[in-house]
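Q: For a teaching handout, I want to show students what a protein-ligand complex looks like in token form. Below are the inputs, and the small molecule is manganese (II) ion. Please produce the holo structure.
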Amino acid sequence: MADITVTEHLLLHQKRTPQATGQFTGLLYDLILSGKSIARRINRAGLLDILGGTGEVNVQGENVQKMDVIANRIMLYRMERCGALCAMSSEEEADLIRVAPEFPQGDYILIFDPLDGSSNIDVNVNVGTIFSILRRKGEHGSEVTLKEVLQPGCQQVAAGYILYGPSTMLVLSTGQGVHGFTLDPGVGEFLLSHPNMRIPDVGRYYSVNDSYWRYWDGAARESLEFFRSRENYSSRYVGALVADFHRTLLCGGIYMYPPEKRKPEGKLRMMCEAAPLAFLVEQAGGKASDGYGRILDRTPSHLHARTPLFIGSSQDVEAVEKIYAKY
Ligand code: AHG
Ligand code: MN
Ligand code: MN
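A: Here is the structure, written as tokens, with manganese (II) ion included.
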């Protein structure tokens, strides 16, 4: 098979989709370039002085890692200049970032988690960058309002992640299935390695941090019991959503981050974590729910809104929704 680069794949796709413009392809090109820059640093993290925390706490109330700051800066710097965006929102930034007037303005909005699973970076375990792309509703060139950004996940035009693992992988959907690309470091390009990814209808693994059992309600406890007692089911938990999701996408199963007594909204961020992965899982034939309904139908109340998340194989997510319906 001839190697297909992600750029070739996007251009092919652009020809097939009349509404896709060069602006959008350019956006993805710069996003991919940012991912390659982040991957390059992560690959040599132990040799550079970029491991460990900065001593600061971010808007999420979490300890900021040096690599969080580096990944965030790389994304902000390049993406503000890409010409396709009017605004950005990052997990690491409290407020909406409007593209400065000295840069060309586009019609897209980029939401991202620059480094997901960053507490894993010091132990050389997978981390990733998650992104979501929205199209603005307002007039081109006018100042973006917060309301334009707070769109339900079903309105995303694209979503994906770059996983920094044994291989660096880009997993992407522009609404026409999910496609995976593996970075060939010698060539410096992401090459199509996983065309048309489909998640099995029922899975092999459940993935949850069950040390929080004591904070869970009855529905969350019963959900875990359901998977625990199932034949041929095993457990896996990396503690980096992007890595746990990637395994779930490939092998099937379910990833759960239920609400807790101390955190009734759960931990995961709707806009930069749950919604983009929900978009991908649905495009691959799976489901994503907050226990009561579809993640993609929920409109976030603010940029850093959180949500419980049950995501993975359709039958497994449906089983959880049945349990929640009883409570
Ligand atoms: P981030 O590193 O972007 O702050 O996200 C961490 C998230 C997610 O990646 C992961 O699934 C979850 O936190 C793990 O949380 P617990 O340590 O509570 O299990
Ligand atoms: Mn994260
Ligand atoms: Mn993060």
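A: Two things your students might notice: Helices lie at 6-16, 22-43, 66-80, 146-149, 218-228, 241-251, 270-283, 314-326. The first strand starts at residue 53 and ends at 57.
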